[in-house]
Amino acid sequence: MNNDILAQLLQAKSDWLNEQLNSKLQQQGCSLTPAQQTVFNLAFEQVTTLSQLAQQMRVSRQAVQKTVASLVELELIQLRTCPENGAAKVLIVTARGQLMRLKYQQVRRDIEAQLLQRLGPEQVAILKQILQQQW
């Protein structure tokens, strides 16, 4: 394990975290693809247009449109005409989307509690401190 490259270790832990998150969300009927999770999180954090999402995610507008359409179908977000630009559409999180966000946040807290139990509070505090630093 001492020969592992840091990037590989971080990726492995990120994969574990995503597996835990997806598994627990599936148990609650809240499963989203990674692309859907990213769009949903960005839409929840700020009012944004499809073009802005594509720029932030560094993907094509068509890829964003496809992901957004799936979230609209799930009734987690709505598209509305942008007041400043009638040609643009903004994403609005629905009431159902807000409930899903609450479940998502609870699952994240549960996973953090699991890490606290496995690693201990001191190690988790150190990990948080390291991850919050500018690299």
From TrEMBL:
<dbReference type="InterPro" id="IPR000835">
    <property type="entry name" value="HTH_MarR-typ"/>
</dbReference>
<feature type="domain" description="HTH marR-type">
    <location>
        <begin position="23"/>
        <end position="124"/>
    </location>
</feature>
<dbReference type="Pfam" id="PF12802">
    <property type="entry name" value="MarR_2"/>
</dbReference>
<protein>
    <submittedName>
        <fullName>MarR family transcriptional regulator</fullName>
    </submittedName>
</protein>
<dbReference type="InterPro" id="IPR036390">
    <property type="entry name" value="WH_DNA-bd_sf"/>
</dbReference>
<dbReference type="InterPro" id="IPR036388">
    <property type="entry name" value="WH-like_DNA-bd_sf"/>
</dbReference>
<dbReference type="GO" id="GO:0003700">
    <property type="term" value="F:DNA-binding transcription factor activity"/>
</dbReference>
